[in-house]
Amino acid sequence: MKVVIRRSADKGGGEQTFEIADAPGETIVELLELIRRQHDPSLAFYYSCRNGLCGTCMMLVNGKPALACLQKIPSRLDGPLTIEPLPGKQLVSDLVVL
Ligand code: FES
User: Which of 2, 8, 23, 27 stands the most exposed, by the fewest C-beta atoms within 10 Å?
Assistant: First the structure.
């Protein structure tokens, strides 16, 4: 699976592509944890409750707002999976917004 993540200027900006052999777990948060653990420890994202209650993990997944703790990794994709910070918010770093 190809995962394209928009990086913030402090991490070089632009999009970064990660090749993930096997999707870990089921959710976008689990995927991001694997990318940070195995590919890039500098990847910034934030979550808290992991239950869909706090909203801190909201981001764009394939262009649509989603709670990353609940959003399932799509089983079939025509292209890469894209993950971007939520627009219209103050960007802190990578996928973290205020
Ligand atoms: S971590 Fe709280 S809604 Fe996702």
Answer: 2
CA triplet 50, 6, 2: central angle to 5 degrees?
A: 80
CA of 94 to the centre of ligand 1 (A): 17
As a whole number of angstroms, the distance between CA 89 and CA 76 comes to: 30
CA 72 vs CA 66, 89, 92: distances in Å: 10, 24, 25
Residues of the chain with pLDDT under 50: none
Rounded-to-integer distance, Cα 61 and Cα 33, Å: 15
Distance in angstroms (rounded) separating the CA atoms of residues 74 and 68 = 12
Expressed in angstroms and rounded, the spacing between residue 85 Cα and the centre of ligand 1 is 14
